Amino acid sequence: MRILHTSDWHLGRAFHRVSMLGAQAEFIGHLVTTVRERGVDAVVVSGDVYDRAVPPLAAVELFDDALHRLADLGVPTVMISGNHDSARRLGVGAGLIGRAGIHLRTDPSASGTPVVLQDDFGDVAFYGLPYLEPALVKDEFGVEKAGHEAVLAAAMERVRADLATRTRGTRSVVLAHAFVTGGEASDSERDITVGGVAAVPAGVFEGVDYAALGHLHGCQTITERVRYSGSPLPYSFSEADHRKSMWLVDLDAAGAVTAERVDCPVPRALARIRGTLEELLADPGLARHEEAWVEATLTDPVRPADPMARLAERFPHTLSLVFDPERAPDDPDVSYAQRLAGRSDQEIAEDFVAHVRGAGPDEHEQGVLRDAFDAVRADDAVREVAR
């Protein structure tokens, strides 16, 4: 059976305030074309279909279009909800949609109930484990301590128990949305540590032929049978070095796995550049980034004037500006409290200006700060009298 594994579409999400809806629509078209041209037998989407619980209408319309196009191909699709999705909302109409071959798995209690598909070699059972928030599902799975490993392990016990009742030789695929030990995170995944230690060992998926994971945005192989597809599009500059792709997985008669990466269309390259403003504007080696989405880190000791406007003249798609002034190696490494000890409000404010801008306030700016502090003190005095 040939399976196309994808996840983390995040429909409705922007990239540094740039709408990604057009790029997301292009990805959906690419996915449908891949299914048709590469002889895919089943599509799995491992969570974070949407970027937030209540997605914008345009994102819902794009999802609706994706469902219709996949259903028209007659290729079964299995989807789970991720930590960005509202499981209840995503699962509305699941029973009816399932008749069209689109199987939405958003209910944790159904973790042990598979979608069973057939190929020339027999049955393949697809188990959908939606994102399991420990505090919300610990009672469902009968675990005493609300932790990610505990609830996922309990869900997998249900999977293995059901698999044991199946016809001998039944192959198995698990969809899960989790942070598995060994995976490399980026800046664009939402933290899931609130429910306890986030990482779970890959061994929790022991006993199944393939675990199709979602949550981490980089395509990666944890083991030959446990993989992340990653997000099809970048959602932070920490993904500048990612190769965005999907996994095309072939499951043979014995359950052996072979996998091939299928690249996703790139709307625009990402680049992270660093140096003083003048260096970035003059360096001929940066010409290759002039049409990229750019994150520029300026190392000027004093913040230059109009840095974004000047950068945009050469790099018109600059989206992020970071200041990291180079400091002398002998700068004292003292605590915040030590730096404030014995200093007046005026001095602390002047130090803050120097820290942020790289140079302290001039005489006029010192006067503005002094007048502001005097006004605050006068206001406090009036309030004290009124009491």
Description:
- The protein folds into 2 domains: 2-263, Metallo-dependent phosphatases (Purple Acid Phosphatase, chain A, domain 2); 270-386, no CATH class.
- It is α/β, with parallel strands linked by helices.
- It contains 11 helices and 19 strands.
- It has helices at 21-37, 57-73, 87-90, 94-98, 134-141, 148-164, 277-282, 307-314, 336-340, 345-357, 363-386, and strands at residues 2-6, 14-15, 18-19, 42-46, 77-80, 102-105, 115-119, 122-129, 171-177, 179-180, 199-200, 210-214, 220-223, 226-228, 245-251, 257-263, 270-275, 293-298, 318-323.
- The protein is elongated.
- Helix 1 (21-37) packs parallel to helix 2 and helix 10 packs across helix 11.
What is the CATH topology of the largest domain? Purple Acid Phosphatase, chain A, domain 2
CATH architectural group of the largest domain: 4-Layer Sandwich
Q: Strands of the biggest beta sheet: in what spatial order?
A: 6-5-4-1-15-16
**Helix and strand element order:** EEEHEHEHHEEEHHEEEEEEEEEHEHEHHH
- Low-pLDDT ranges: none
SS field, number of helical segments: 11
Into which percentage range does the β-strand content fall?
15-25%
Q: Shape from CA axes?
A: elongated
Please identify the oligomeric state.
Answer: single chain
Compute the number of strand runs. Answer: 19
Q: Tell me roughly what share of residues is in helical segments.
A: 25-40%
Mean pLDDT: 91
Our count of domains comes out at 2
Structural class: alpha/beta
- Profile the largest sheet: 6 strands, mixed
Domain Calcineurin-like phosphoesterase: 1-218
GO biological process, one term: DNA replication
Pfam family, one: SbcD_C
Keywords: DNA recombination, DNA replication, Endonuclease, Exonuclease, Hydrolase, Nuclease
